[in-house]
Amino acid sequence: MEFKIALLPGDGIGPEIVGEAVKVLNRIGEKFGHRFLYTRALVGACAIDATGDPYPDETHAVCLDSDAVLFGAIGDPRYDNDPSASVRPEQGLLRMRKSLGLFANLRPVSLFETLIDRSPLKPEIVRGTDFICVRELTSGIYFGRPQGRSEDGNRAYDTCAYTREEVERVVRMAFELARERRRRLTVVDKANVLETSRLWREVAQGMAPSYSDITLEFMFVDNAAMQIVRQPTHFDVIVTENLFGDVLTDEASVISGSLGMLPSASLGSEVALFEPIHGSYPQATGKNIANPLATILSAAMMLDHLGLTVEGTAVRNAVDRTLKEGVVTEDLCLPGQRAFSTSEVGDNVCGGL
Ligand code: IPM
Ligand code: MN
Q1: 204-229 burial, b if ≥16 CB within 10 A, otherwise e?
Q2: Contact residues for 176 (Cβ-Cβ < 8 A; gap 6+)
Q3: Among candidate residues 39, 40, 46, the one with its CA nearest the CA of residue 11
Q4: Ligand 1 site residues, Cβ closer than 6 angstroms
Q5: Is 4 considered catalytic here?
Q6: Four-residue CA torsion sign, 232, 235, 240, 245
Q7: pLDDT tens across 280-320, in order?
Q8: pTM of the prediction?
Q9: What's the 273 CA to ligand 1 centre distance in angstroms?
C-alpha cells in the first residue's frame, strides 16, 4: 500500500531523530511491500527563521494532505531567555495541535524489561508498568484567554477553561481505550480547588453508566504525581487536562529509564500526528548522540494507526532486540559501557527487521 507521510523534523535534534525513524519506515516498506511518500515541512524555530511564522500555512496544508504526520521536536534556546519575544517556536506547536484538531495525546508508559536497571526507581516498583496517559491537548490553560500582563507589567495571568464538550470527547476516548485494556480509568484533576476540575468530574461521572464495565476512579493531581512513582502498576488508563498531562508524563518517563524512550500519538478530527514526548535537546544538536527510540516508537504507533499493526509490532520487537543487544545511546548507558550514536541505534533497529 501507499501512504503519504508529512515529515516535520522541527528544531534541535528533530532532524536527526526523524531521520532514523524514516530509515526504519523505509525498511518496513521494503520488507512488507509498502511505499511511504514523504513531504517535508517546516515548524518551530526553523520555520520562524525561514518565513517569520512558526507554523506556516504551507505546513498546515502539507499535514492536511497526508495520511499521518511524523513530528520531531521544536524549541530553541534563543527564545527561552527572552520573555519579550513576540514569536516563539512553541506557538507553532500549539497552533498546529489546535488547527489539526488534535485534542487527545496518547502517551503510553511501559517498561522494556531490559532497561529495568536503568530506571532510578527500584526494579520491584517499576516491573510490570503498563499504562497510557491520555492528555487533553487543545484546551485548558495552554489556550485559555485572557492571557497577559497588567499595564504596569507587575501582574500576569493565564486562564484555564474547558467546555463540557471538550472534556467529554477526550474522556470518551479514554473510556474506550480502557475497554481495550485492563478496564481501569483514572481521572486526574484538582477538583478540591479548581472549577474546571469539578466539570471534568461531573462529565466523567455522567458518562460512567454507559461504561459500567470500567472501574472509574478520581485522583487529585498531587496524589497522582506521588502514586506514579510509588506504585506505577496501579494505573491502566489515566485521562487528564493539558498541563497536568504534560507534567505527569515527563515524570512517568523515569519509569522507562529515559525521556528518550516515550512515544506519543495525537488524535482528533483531522489527520493524526506522532511525536516523541521529549523536546529538542539543543545541547545535542548535530552531535549524533540523541536517543532516536522515542521517535522510532512513535513511528510504530503511526503504523498501528494506519492499520499496519503487524508492521508496528515488528518495529517494537526490533527495538526490543536492539536494547537487548545493548546498542543504546548515552542516556541509557550503564557506567563503563560504550555509548552508541543516534544513527548506530537506528541502523541496528533496521538490521533487526
Ligand atoms: C510537550 C512539550 C510541549 C508542551 C512544549 C514544547 C510546548 O513539552 O509536547 O510535552 O508543553 O506541550
Ligand atoms: Mn512536555
Answers
A1: beebeeebeebebebbebeebbebbb
A2: none
A3: 46
A4: 75, 90, 93, 246, 277, 279
A5: no
A6: positive
A7: 999 999 999 999 999 999 999 999 999 999 999 999 999 99
A8: 0.95
A9: 14
